[in-house]
Write a structure and sequence with these properties.
Layout (H helix, E strand, L loop, with lengths): L10 E4 L2 E3 L1 H8 L2 E4 L4 E3 L1 H4 L8 H7 L2 H8 L3
Parallel strand pairs: 1-3, 2-4
Length: 74
């Protein structure tokens, strides 16, 4: 949570598979730069569990297109 409320702008650069904690880490950053081959997702939600690192709260505040992409595991 310190990352989310930091006074310093934060950027996550992703490439490849970014699931679980990596996805939650990216959600807490101010900006995310994703490679074309990046796959982001909260795999916990796929098996009926709630993400532990505040992923649900950040996902609810995310733009609809980003939230849709993460929830559909595309």
């Amino acid at each position: 949570m310190r990352l989310r409320y930091s006074l310093v702008p934060t950027v996550a650069a992703t490439e490849g598979y970014v699931f679980g904690g990596g996805c939650e880490f990216a959600l807490h950053c101010d900006r995310v730069v994703a490679a074309h081959e990046s796959y982001l997702g909260l795999v916990e939600a796929g098996v009926g569990l709630l993400p532990g690192g505040g992923g649900c709260k950040e996902l609810a505040a995310a733009p609809p297109s980003a939230a849709r992409a993460i929830c559909s595991r595309r």
